[in-house]
From TrEMBL:
This is Acetyltransferase, GNAT family. The keyword DNA damage does not apply. Gene3D superfamilies: 3.40.630.30. Pfam families: Acetyltransf_1. SUPFAM superfamilies: Acyl-CoA N-acyltransferases (Nat). InterPro entries: Acyl_CoA_acyltransferase, Bact_Acetyltransf, GNAT_dom.
Amino acid sequence: MDKNQQKQVWKKLPRKMYSEAQEFLEDREDQCVSACARFLHMKGSRDHVWALRNGTGSIKALLLHSRRSLYPILNGNHDIALPKFLNNFLLKVPIHAVQGLKPDAEILEAAMESKGYHPAERIDYDLMALEDPPVSSCFRSGPVNLALRPPMPGDIEELFQLQAAYEQEEVLPKGAVFYPAASRANLERLLRNEQMLLACLDGRIVGKINTSAASFTRYQIGGVYVRPDYRGRGIAVRMAAVFLKGLINEGRGVTLFVKKQNAAARAVYRHTGFTVQGDYRICYY
């Protein structure tokens, strides 16, 4: 460790200083929507914000803890001092995941490995952003009789089939057990707190898309799923285009992260106007 690192000390921020953390996050919002959304919903002693300051006293990096996850926002600093408090914290609080820009996640991952904590799985994603409505051709994609609508109370059982399939295909870490009750609770939370659009064809719900987080000026989307037997017909493109147009018209930008190996999903997002902003990583423990 060099002399500069020796002078760097991570300190937990009291709530009266959260405005400093918010200013730091707002300047980097497009790179850390998930972290910003968690910051906006910090709850008492269960959640934590640590800051690392530079020589002038300004925040140089942040580390957030919320809902068993750690979010490093290190601002591209590769000479970050490892947080010395981390070992004691990990002994008291179980961590399920680390997520953030890949370079930041790698630094925290290395710090945790030095303390004996090794990830069960690492998943790399493209971080993508959209600022303008999708091009007009997207709205002509898919079957002519495709119907798009918001969810209704009577949809819950059919929607649960899609949510369960989506989580098992795209969300659960390798080797993780699927719990139907937890998936249903997650769906109910989405229906209460997020925006969602359904794609219907042949008298059934064949696809869905929803917001998964909202930060200061951006939405994050997720839960994008089309039944396997309806894929390849342009349904996802039109469903996403209609949904995204509504979000953009609210005056917000839109962000997502998509698995690098999911070529079909990446093609859909590129078609609707998303551009890659960087590499994103989630490490599961």
